[in-house]
Amino acid sequence: MITPAFEITQDPVFLTIIIKVPYARVSEVDVYIEGDDFKFYAKPYFLRLSLPGRIVEDGRQKATYDVDKGVFTICVPKETPEQHFEGLDLLTALLAPRGTRSCKPLVEEIGSQSELPEEEEEEEFDWQIEQTPYEEPSADVLHCSYGFGNSRSGVFRRLQDELNDIIDLRDPDVTSVLERTQKRLAAENSKFDPDHYLADLFEDDAIRHLLKYQPWWVVALKEASSASEDSENKKVTFSEKEKDQLRQFSNKSYLLDKKTERMVFLGLIDLLLAYCYEIRVTEGEKNVESAWNIRKLSGTLSWFENYNSIKDVLVSFGRRILCYPLYRHFSLVTKAMKDTCSLLKLGKAAVLKCLLDIHAIFQENDPVYILNDLYITDYCIWIQKVK
């Protein structure tokens, strides 16, 4: 669990606790208020405070969440109005635990009658888990950035438990761009399985079946080609679910220099290639492995790769297709490239529709949803404004 950055202010009647949780699942939040105990849980964040005075939960408490900043602001009434709480700036002292979780003796005698229960009780969350104060990332850590436009850093320094389930890169906060590429290539070389490749090459009945599949954008492009130029944009429509996704995004602008903008465009191609492969091999029927496929085939998502040319993107994608997924055939590589070209020809609306689908897939997979915060959400907003 991660101890979030927080601060506390007070007035004569209320304590105001400001908690920064930029990568939390805000749909699953628990707040506990009793006496001088305050506990907050929003996976993967946990905060337990031992306050210098008593607070109450009497209906006057309130909480707000700033989506853009990822900040909870919780106002809690003091049990005794006008009481001044001392030491609210002593963060380490506030994090000190009140005591142990149980009063069991340090040594217990286990006799012959001690047996495990037939049914284990459901595991409860440990509200007394050890905490350490939040520290801002150091300058050398900030040098190794990632995310959309390389705008993030220090995220995984405190997300080590989730790291293995999200990306292939170990220690991303201290790994330079050049080292990421070198480690990615080494991992791909070690993962390539000649037997698997040859089996898919010669026993290709399933592959040939998948190559015949026509995703929605192929059909839409054919219709657009036969229609007038004015009606092309109407070939891509958004469902009510997709419209709801769009309404939830914040309206912000991105100031990218030419080098960063080029990198963002190349990252977009990388994402679309991985998505097109996934849609083809599942014939549009996404499954529990869809999130794994997309992030694994994208060097951007799995290694925080910064590509320098379209050639680098295509070579990386081809290598990863031949190393990781169930179907490893070069025909699927070239087909995904053609699919991506079709999407780009349809325009921004088609690209946005695919990004929204990736966003929905990741949002349903814990802890992969963190990749939405790092990349996909920003791509969904940026693609609508890019010229």
Automatic annotation (TrEMBL):
Subcellular location: Cytoplasm, Cytosol; Nucleus, Nucleoplasm
Domain of life, source organism: Eukaryota
Keyword Cytoplasm among UniProt keywords: yes
Protein's UniProt keywords contain Cytoplasm: yes
Keywords assigned by UniProt, alphabetized: Cytoplasm, Nucleus
Pfam families for the chain: SHQ1, SHQ1-like_CS
Record-linked PANTHER family: PROTEIN SHQ1 HOMOLOG
Protein name: Protein SHQ1 homolog
Source organism of this protein record: Pelobates cultripes (Western spadefoot toad)
